[in-house]
Each structure stands twice: as C-alpha cells, then as structure tokens.
Amino acid sequence: MSRKKFNWNYLLIAPALLISVSIILVPGILTIISSFTDWNGISPNINFIGFENFKELFHDKIFFISIRNNVIWTVMFVTIPVCIGMLAAMLLLSRKKTRSIYQVAFLIPYVLAPAVNAMLWLNIIFSPVVGLVAYFKGLGFDISSPLASMKSAIYACAGVDIWHYWSYLTVIYLAALRQTPTDQVEAARIDGCNAWQLFRYIYMPNIKATVSLMFVMIVIGSFLAFDYVKLLTGGGPAHSTEVLGTYAYSYAFSSMQVGKAAAVGLFMSFFGLIASGIYARLSRKEEMQ
Amino acid sequence: MKRKMIAMLLSLAMIGSMLTGCSVSTGSSDDDKKTEDDAKGEESADAEDGTVTKSDPNMKDREEINLWFWGAEPYAQEAMQKILADKYNASQDKYQLVIEFRPSVDTDMSTALAANQGPDIVYGSGPSFVMPLVEAGKLEAMDAYAEEYGWKDRILQPYYESGTVDGKLYSLVNGVSTMGVFYNKKVLEDNGWEVPTTIEELESVMDQALEKGLYASVTGNKGWKPVNENYGSLFLTHIAGPDTVYKCLTGEEKWNNPNVQAAIEKSKEWWDKGYLAGEDYVNLNFSESLQLLADEKSPFFIGPSIAFQWAASFFTDDKEENIAFIPFPATEQVPDETYTLGAACTLSINANVSQEHKDEAAKIIDMMMQPEFMQEMTEAWPGYWGTPLKDLTTVDTSNMGYLSKSFVDVVQNISGAVNAGNFGFYDNVFFPAATQQAIVNIEDVWYDTISVTDYLDNMDKEFAAEFEKGLVPPIPKPAGIQ
C-alpha cells in the first residue's frame, strides 16, 4: 500500500494565501456588504437598505460623469502613453550604448511621488502667480490654466498622469523588444523590410503578450485613478474631473456615507474585473494556438 | 567613462528627487534640527504620510497622553510644543504630552476611533465632525469637567452650545474663525478708495479694480475644495440672514426658501462678475492669494480670519502694516456688524481611554482654554488661537507684533458681537456632514451645471435625512429670534 505523498506546495503558498484572504478577500466581502447599508463609517448602528445606494447612484448625474471621465482616462491611457512609450522604446533599441542614460532620465517623473509631480505642475506650469501660465500672460498671451475650465480640466489631469507614466511603459516595452531573436530581425533586414515592416511583422508578434498584459493593467489602473485628480483639482471644477475614486472618497470622508462609497467602489472593481476577464480569455486563446 | 558619469549623475538626481518627495521639511537644517532635538526633545517624521511626532526622550518612563493635530507649519509645531507640551510636562512628573502633527488628521481620526483606538485628546475640524462620533459612542461626555473648570461660565455661549449633544458637552471649540475682508491699505490709498462699509461700496471698489487690471479680490480653492464653503456660509449670513439660516437648521423652514435662494444667487452673481479672483479661483490657494494681496495686485482678500497665520509670511518688513481686516460690510438684509461663527478646531476626549488619561486630557484642554494660552500662542502663531472666551481683557497685546495684535482685536470684536447675538452660522460648525458637502458643492451653481432651485432642492433633501437622524448640532439663537 503506497503512502500518499504530502504536497508541500500547499504549505508554501499558505502564507501568501492567508495574507490575501485577510487583507483582500475579507475587506472585499465587507465592502460588498457595506454597499447595502447606510453605514457612516463609525457608528455601530448599521441598517440594511437593500439596493437603495445603487438606486440613488443610478439617478445621480455626477456618478455618470465619473464613469465618463474614467472612460476618457482609459482611452487616453491606452493610446497616448502606449504610442509614446513604444516609439521611445523602438528608438532606444538602436541606441545600445546610451539607452541606460535615457531610461534613467525618462524614469525620473515615474519615481517621483505623485504629490511632488502634482506640486510641480500646479506651481511651475499652471500657477497664475509664478508658473508658465503667469509668464505667458505677462507676455500678453490670453491663456489660462487648463484646470480652470470644465472642458479641459480632465484632459489636463490625465496629461500630467501620462507625463509621469509613459516612461514606465518605455522601459517595459524596451525590455520586451530586446527579447526578440536577433536572427529574425537580421533575416527580415536582409529580406528588405523597412522600419515599419520590421516593427509590424517581427517585433510586434514577439512582444504581443507584454503589450496585452500592459493594456489590461492600464485599463484596471484607469478605473482606479485617484491621486492626480485628487491632488490637481479635487474632482472640480464643478465635478468636471470627478472619477469613481474621488467620488467614492468624497462620499466616505466628506459626506460620511461609507455605504454609498462602497457601492461606488464596487463599480470600480467591476470595470477592472471586465478587463481582467478579457485578458484571461485572450491569454487562453493564445495558449490554445 | 563620460557616459557612466552622466548615468551616475542622473541616478543620483533620481534618488535625490525621490527623497525630496518623501521627506518632511521642518524648516531647519539637519544641524539645526539635531541641536534642537538635543535641547527640546525627539522629533520623528513618518515619510509615508508626513506625520511629525514630538516627544521628549528624557521622559520615556512617563505615560503618554496623545494629541493628534493637523500638519501645521514647523514654526507652529514648535510653538505648540513649547507653549503647551513643555509647560504641561513641567507641571507634573507622571505623564508626557506627545503631539502628533498629521496632515490627514480628519480621516486618521475617524478610522482610529472607529477601531476604538486613537489619541486621548480628539482633534476635530468642527462640531459637525463630532456628531457621528458621539452617536457612535466614541467620545466622552465632558460635563463633569465643564463644571470642575468652569467652562460654561467662561466660554461664549454659542460656541459652548455647539459642542453639546442632547444637552451633554462633547467638544470645545478652541479657536474662533470668521469670514471677513482683508484689505491692502496702500492699494486703497493709492487709488483713492475708501474702506467699504456697505456691500455696494465693496462691489464698487471691486468693479474699479477690475477696470484697472487688478483682481477684484484674491482667493482660491487650489488643493482644498472646501474653500468654497467660506463663500456659501458668507452669503447665507449676510444675504439670507442669520434668522433664516437658524430656521432652516432647526427644521422650521426649508432650504429652498426665497432668502436662501437670494443668497446663492448673489454668490453666483459675484462669481460671474469675477469678484472671486475670476478664472484664477481654482489656481490659487490662500498663501498665493495673500502673496498677491501683499504685492498690491488686488485691494481685497475675502476669507477666514485664520488667514492671519499665512499673512505673516508675505506682509513683512515695510509691508507688515499694509494689511487690515474688517467684518463683511453691511447689506440691506443684515445692516449690523455680524460675524459668521466658524471654528479653527474642536477638542474632545476619547471615550476608550482610562479614567486617569481622561482627567489629564481635560486638564490639557483647560490649559488651552485660558487667555494666557491664547496670548502666548498668538504671539508665536498669529491667526489661529482665538479662544472663544467671554472675557479677553486679560490678553496683553503689548508684546505682540502688528498681525498678532490685529488678530486679537478681531477675536475681541467677534466676542462682543456674539454676546449681542449678531452672528451667523459657518457650515463646518453647524451643518451636518452631507449638507456641509452640499455647501462645498456650491461651485456647481457657479459653473451652471445645476440651477439654484435644483441645487437647493438637493440640499434640502440631504438636510432632511440628516435632521431626521439627529445629526444637526445644537443651533444657538441669534438676535431677533424669540
């Protein structure tokens, strides 16, 4: 009779699993429960109010403005930094000796704290007292800070975040591009491929998995956007830059309506889950192929 | 070699930038700081959230009494340590008062108290912040201490009452604030403008300032959206009138009444005319606004009296006496000198600490409710510590600088007006949380995303729900209410 072999894998993953359950699953479940209550975040008196929070959100104009802004954020992030990052990575690919210097220089905004980046933009660029805006105004140009306009503020916030983020994508893409087999590249060159064809038919298929993964990460990150909006505009002017993250924060800590904040939080997770689901499906498809 | 050097330099720049982002400036060099630490105690800074904790390593054997405070500027932290903590620590040998300066004190406090943790002395940003904490049983009733220290007799009645819930005292406002008009004397003199005594005169000067290419007034909500509530509260006091607001807050009237509507419309008119710094409102904070006022770019800064503390940085040397403060000018609806009652902060006692710690917390709060404390703190930190006492005659201003003296005058004037019942209601003191948030959202009206009627209907709905839950603090009666 053979003794069943003990599987050490379970024991080894236990600590990580325990931490995940404690700090992700339990709070996650509590958030779902809270979204059906009128809890204010402090009081022990909690009433279950069914779908009331969700019903109110569906009648709330600002909630839909927040979703729209998250979508704008996502569209901007899956295009602008991806294109800039890819272009920079392709250019750096041929700069074998100096690319380390460029990477470090490009990464500086990424490693700075969001609060520092936001202060830089608020005080050096957008400030009407000492910033670039003030300088150009002084020269007689009729310009004002884009943060002051309801039409441009969300793009300005996303722009600052993109400025801080694109270099991260450059580094990731560059690392992936460098994994492309050189024999394929050389063969394509001998066959007369131009730069675009080289990118389209040689590099792109090789880095497709990385690009897909980053796409999903960007979508998830875009629906979790919070810091730059909070720091630059606080969701204003007149809620024009409100995203789901800032709206949930405002419910939780300003209006003391944690139940409603939890409901908003669930929507943030919901969009992230959709992106994760798409990624899982795509990955499986690729594996099958 | 050259490339390696460049790479190293860039790496160093990156690390330096990271450290800059994470460090907490205490306004002194490392050497200075070390000397100060040796002399005055230990200061630790949490790089993650900017919290600064001040404690004395020589008192490690003493029990700690904790006070969490907002992340005040370094000179203000030093003043609190010296005038409050060091004095208290020297007064006995069992406890040590440890002050933590936390930039996110409001959210930290709510979270800690919800988990039955938190400091012994509970800082609050206003009585309305206190209401949910009382409802949750997180704060200790302070009536016994009020009797022991005679707080009810010494503190201005509206402020004392604002800290009570169902007749029991849970918090004390320890710094008054009011909305008014700071003006640059030189700008007014140079342009031949008189100090305005009515809203029409104020508007006339602002119109002329705009024509001359100046700001009508400087202010802004950059980095702190709740600045909006200053103007919401201001127009409610001076256009809707204290009696109307009193009736709304006590449920006698709805918020969508014609007087409140007129107040919100007036704020919108000011916004449209560019009286609130025009399109730069969202790009200016109070410091920048006061810098512009000092630089003579505007005749006025309309804002809270606690702005005296930031004025000290810009009105220096020969400019120091260029600034002055007046209450908001008379309006047709409110002709008398009337002050919107605001609070710099409130202090309460944590219900989840030992009885001994509660007693010590009360003793420390009482130290902060003395005219001597106000005097010493105002000398070092003008503009914040306007203790709401009935009698401020013992506050000696002879050693104070111009700004500190001006601030004490303002607090004494508020005290007189409050005793006469001439006061209005600042939303962060008297409005429950969601209604207060509705006032913060007044910019929705300014930017035309909602009509005044719809805005007030929504506010009324929020208020009705909170009123029903008993979340409205006690509302003192202003003059004219029977």
Automatic annotation (TrEMBL), chain A:
Location in the cell reads:
Cell membrane
| Record's bilayer topology term | Multi-pass membrane protein
**Xref: Pfam families:** BPD_transp_1
Q: Enumerate the UniProt keywords alphabetically.
A: Cell membrane, Membrane, Transmembrane, Transmembrane helix, Transport
- Where is the chain membrane-spanning? 12-33, 71-93, 105-133, 153-176, 207-226, 261-280
In the record, the note on similarity to other proteins reads: Belongs to the binding-protein-dependent transport system permease family.
**Superkingdom as given in the UniProt entry:** Bacteria
Which Gene Ontology BP terms does the record give?
transmembrane transport
By its UniProt entry, which SUPFAM superfamilies does this protein fall under?
MetI-like
What organism does the record attribute this protein to?
A: Lactonifactor longoviformis DSM 17459
Q: What is the lineage of its organism?
A: Bacteria, Bacillati, Bacillota, Clostridia, Eubacteriales
Please state what the protein is called. Carbohydrate ABC transporter membrane protein 1, CUT1 family (TC 3.A.1.1.-)
Quote a single Gene Ontology cellular component term: plasma membrane
ABC transmembrane type-1 domain span: 67-279
Automatic annotation (TrEMBL), chain B:
Q: Would the keyword Signal turn up in this protein's UniProt record?
A: yes
PROSITE patterns the record matches:
PROKAR_LIPOPROTEIN
Instruction: Report residue spans for region: Disordered.
Output: 24-58
Q: Which UniProt keywords apply?
A: Signal
Signal sequence region = 1-20
- The protein's superkingdom reads Bacteria
InterPro entries to which the protein is assigned, alphabetical: Bact_solute-bd_prot1, SBP
Question: Calcium as a keyword?
Answer: no
Compositional bias of kind Basic and acidic residues: 30-43
Name of the protein in its database record:
Raffinose/stachyose/melibiose transport system substrate-binding protein
